[in-house]
């Protein structure tokens, strides 16, 4: 998903467009590192912010930090000057980009399931902080094994458009389409279905539980109303995070499938620019999560301001 189709080399694009691409990705890297660092340090600094859901949000921020500080710079270097790091780092560093992407996918899905369990199945045992940490520690190696490992051994430095490029050397013809369809189904289609169903059930549950409040005493009614509003705000924040994630990642998956199965029918000029737009969206995603959190979450906004101005 993360690997571009390499149509937007400097030799292909106009110089002015090259500059815009450079500036956009570089700026998103700077803001991504800064804003996601604030998210991580906010939860680390304030103990009351360390809930299971917030720890999972921190895991999203760590994945976005990794994209901003490692994956995107490597991609910029490769596209504009070639891959200068040799075969070993080609097979070690580049697959990590797939891992960072799938960590975000799995973490978003885990958050949806955690909220589903807490709201739709409130009588079941809550997810503890300890178990949340264990889940987070398990997500990273699991994502590497399921997304990066299938491609890591076949990545080699090859000549492409006159430059050294870290690219997969597919062992047989069907390896590439099988791998790409696998990524699309397992890490886009299935998680999207799970997240959509979970949040649909959550919203339905919140709506139906508001009705019986009329029969409660006034003090309990106020308490339930406050709790309801807090949960609604949280679900709104999480829903926007998921929507932004899918808007940024689904087009990349679509372009991958179009190139794989219909490239003979493509207008290559149109495809080149469409591919570029989806790639920029893909890298802008790691800036969006903190902006959404600051815009929609009062707790993150207040704690982040304290973190910045009180220390």
From TrEMBL:
<dbReference type="Pfam" id="PF00001">
    <property type="entry name" value="7tm_1"/>
</dbReference>
<feature type="transmembrane region" description="Helical">
    <location>
        <begin position="238"/>
        <end position="258"/>
    </location>
</feature>
<feature type="transmembrane region" description="Helical">
    <location>
        <begin position="270"/>
        <end position="294"/>
    </location>
</feature>
<keyword id="KW-0812">Transmembrane</keyword>
<dbReference type="GO" id="GO:0005886">
    <property type="term" value="C:plasma membrane"/>
</dbReference>
<keyword id="KW-0675">Receptor</keyword>
<feature type="transmembrane region" description="Helical">
    <location>
        <begin position="56"/>
        <end position="76"/>
    </location>
</feature>
<feature type="transmembrane region" description="Helical">
    <location>
        <begin position="20"/>
        <end position="44"/>
    </location>
</feature>
<keyword id="KW-0472">Membrane</keyword>
<dbReference type="InterPro" id="IPR017452">
    <property type="entry name" value="GPCR_Rhodpsn_7TM"/>
</dbReference>
<dbReference type="GO" id="GO:0004930">
    <property type="term" value="F:G protein-coupled receptor activity"/>
</dbReference>
<feature type="transmembrane region" description="Helical">
    <location>
        <begin position="134"/>
        <end position="155"/>
    </location>
</feature>
<keyword id="KW-0297">G-protein coupled receptor</keyword>
<dbReference type="InterPro" id="IPR000276">
    <property type="entry name" value="GPCR_Rhodpsn"/>
</dbReference>
<feature type="transmembrane region" description="Helical">
    <location>
        <begin position="96"/>
        <end position="113"/>
    </location>
</feature>
<keyword id="KW-1133">Transmembrane helix</keyword>
<protein>
    <submittedName>
        <fullName>Substance-K receptor</fullName>
    </submittedName>
</protein>
<feature type="domain" description="G-protein coupled receptors family 1 profile">
    <location>
        <begin position="35"/>
        <end position="293"/>
    </location>
</feature>
<keyword id="KW-0807">Transducer</keyword>
<feature type="transmembrane region" description="Helical">
    <location>
        <begin position="181"/>
        <end position="200"/>
    </location>
</feature>
